[in-house]
Specification:
Undecaprenyl pyrophosphate synthetase, alpha/beta
Length: about 240
Amino acid sequence: MAAVSNAPPRHVAIVMDGNGRWAQRRHLPRIAGHKKGVDALKRVVKLCVARGIGVLTVFAFSSENWNRPEEEVSGLMELLALALAREVKPLAEEGVRLRFIGDRNNLSQRLKDGLSQAEQATASNERLLLNVCFNYGGRWDVVQAARQLADTGQEITESALSSMLATAHCGDPDLLIRTGGEMRLSNFLLWQAAYAELFFSATLWPDFDEADLDAAIQAFGARERRFGLTSAQLLTGAAG
């Protein structure tokens, strides 16, 4: 099949869904599932490094998640603070560079400082770029990009808008994975995912493991990415 490659995707994005259901099935508080979700993310980061994936972008907290029960939201904020305290050094030792993407206006000063410090501490690392989307929404991203263009008087074109998106530093994802059995984007990377290959896994995020990631990568490698062209055009381009 034309344009099919066994090379791994350069940029993988993941909607880490199913933490709450994982906990509920074990009669545990939902925050217990989110804690296990952090363990799953640490596992997947190591796997991405081992497989030569350059960029991993994960959806940690959406702009809509503020509407969840107050106890869960406050627990997630504390979990992020704890992860910043415990995980930045091990990630730095793995060669991981951290970037936090999203609207920081509603975050506490403690969290804002922690995010900035984590970014600074890992800024020179090059093995894997880990984008953590926190208080992020795809619609927010497009709006903030358009506002930047309007404020500077620039013409709003596709390329100009793309250059102002929160992910402009790393480009669009090649493969977008959603765990937990749901089949929707949920306001994640709406512009950037226009030509991403989508893979939906029934596995709840805390259980997502090496076999699950490899299944997604294998599915990606078997697909023909045409970007609006025909298979014949791709063959001609490859031949010429």
